[in-house]
Amino acid sequence: MILQQPMKLFFMFLSQNKALNVAAKRWGLKVGASQVVAGKNIESAIAKVKELNKQGLTCTLDHLGEFVDSKEEATAATEYCLKTLDAMASTGVDCNLSLKMTQLGLDISEDFCLENMRRIVGTAKQYNNFVRIDMEDYSHCQQTLEILKELRKDYDNVGTVIQAYLIRAEEDIRSLKGISLRLVKGAYKESPEVAFQDKAKIDENYFNIIKNHLLSGSYTAIATHDHHIIEKVISFAKENGIKNSQFEFQMLYGFRTDLQLELVKKGYTMRVYVPFGQDWFGYFMRRLAERPQNVAFALRGLFSK
């Protein structure tokens, strides 16, 4: 346990290293990443989604990408999101789309990013599909919510993510009543000024925002691998007459697959977050940072090559 915090900081540092991120694109899915990233292209990702659908699991696809600082890259990422929506529609898979707006030009221009988002959400609407805006670090939080507000004026098929470790999370939940939200604990390193640092406090706030969003009648995606939280949510829903159709559980591709299938057998919607693409390094390092146990993925991948 003594090594847990230094190890977390180490992997978070690696996740933000642009040079390593660029190099990783040349490595391929090494050091265990293939266990948690569903291939490098749309075809491989759709194939994985089909396999998961056959097991009763629904999915969300995320074309990985970070550190986009040119309009050309952002436009290419937008086109790839559109191709992904096309592929979902043509294959009939049970899957929606997740994305990060920094990949679509958020750090270049909010108006430019909003334009790209309108193209994506509009296409998804035509396909009767849904787009989830992933929440990134705190510096992008308010921007994300402002763009979501603009999109919601014209589209009802878009939602975002609220992170329980942020002090502002409870207030954000209240202001987003009626919007489909994915609720998570949080995966970025943030300062004590904006985020709770104590695990027990984060867990407490996480369950509180889950309860608040459910009680408001809003659709709630509970994204966690913590079986204690899952059990508490199930009990809370039953005690308060909340139907299974009002919420779903979400987990990452490659993690706790037995628990995923167990929830399906119990009649709950279980959505798997399926990342894919060549820009996998930052995502994978954050997964290693979240829990020391995840390092076993990397070691198995390293010694199996």
From TrEMBL:
| Enzyme class, spelled out | oxidoreductase
What GO molecular function terms would the record report? nucleotide binding; proline dehydrogenase activity
Residues given in the record as FAD binding sites: M135, Q163, K185, G186, A187, K199, T224, H225
**Cell wall biogenesis/degradation is among the record's keywords:** no
Cofactor details (free text): Binds 1 FAD per subunit.
What GO terms in the biological process aspect are recorded for it?
L-proline catabolic process to L-glutamate
Which stretches make up the Proline dehydrogenase domain? 46-297
EC assignment: 1.5.5.2
Query: What cofactors are annotated for this protein?
Result: FAD
Instruction: Indicate whether Oxidoreductase appears among the record's keywords.
Output: yes
UniProt superkingdom: Bacteria
Its pathway is: Amino-acid degradation; L-proline degradation into L-glutamate; L-glutamate from L-proline: step 1/2
Positions binding substrate in this chain are: K100, R286, R287
Cross-referenced Pfam families: Pro_dh
The record's catalysed reaction(s) read: L-proline + a quinone = (S)-1-pyrroline-5-carboxylate + a quinol + H(+)
**What keywords sit in the KW lines?**
FAD, Flavoprotein, Nucleotide-binding, Oxidoreductase, Proline metabolism
Q: Which InterPro entries match?
A: FAD-linked_oxidoreductase-like, PRODH_bac_arc, Proline_DH_dom, Proline_oxidase
Any idea what this protein is called? proline dehydrogenase
Source organism: Halalkalibacter alkaliphilus
